[in-house]
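#help-structures
NK: newbie question, is this the right format to request a structure? protein is MarR family transcriptional regulator
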Amino acid sequence: MRHYTKATFNVTESVGFQLVRARNLIIAEMDGALKEFDISSQQMGILLVLRRKLATTPFEMSKMLGMDTGLMTRMLDKLEAKGLLVRSRDQQDRRVVNLSLTKDGTAVADQVPEVAVEVLNARLKAFTKDEVAELRRLLHKFAGD
């Protein structure tokens, strides 16, 4: 089914525009709330993925978080400079770089979910529980999950 035509397309009402706008709102609010930890929302994602052991290499992390490898390298450099993670060569395959949280990185990763919860709850305060479930379902469908 075609939902748009050239004649009816309105950029500010398009799904793409609205998704980007929603993403930008959440990022700005999350970045503001994370200032006390001196990390960005993108860096928060890396810390949380490492804490939950969902990815352990820069490549896996790039795929999971949808970041290109250049941006991932810059994010990892910043987190490493802050003492929140370390890179190490894999013992079996020296070409592979493994990522792990430091003690400080683990402490931050354990605290930031509270911040994320507050930011997301504030953004979703006008939604019912069913509406949030439907929004999540639709986003999964849109992403092809």
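mod (FA): yep, format's fine, and the tokens are attached above. The domain at 11-143 is CATH 1.10.10.10 (Arc Repressor Mutant, subunit A).
NK: thank you!
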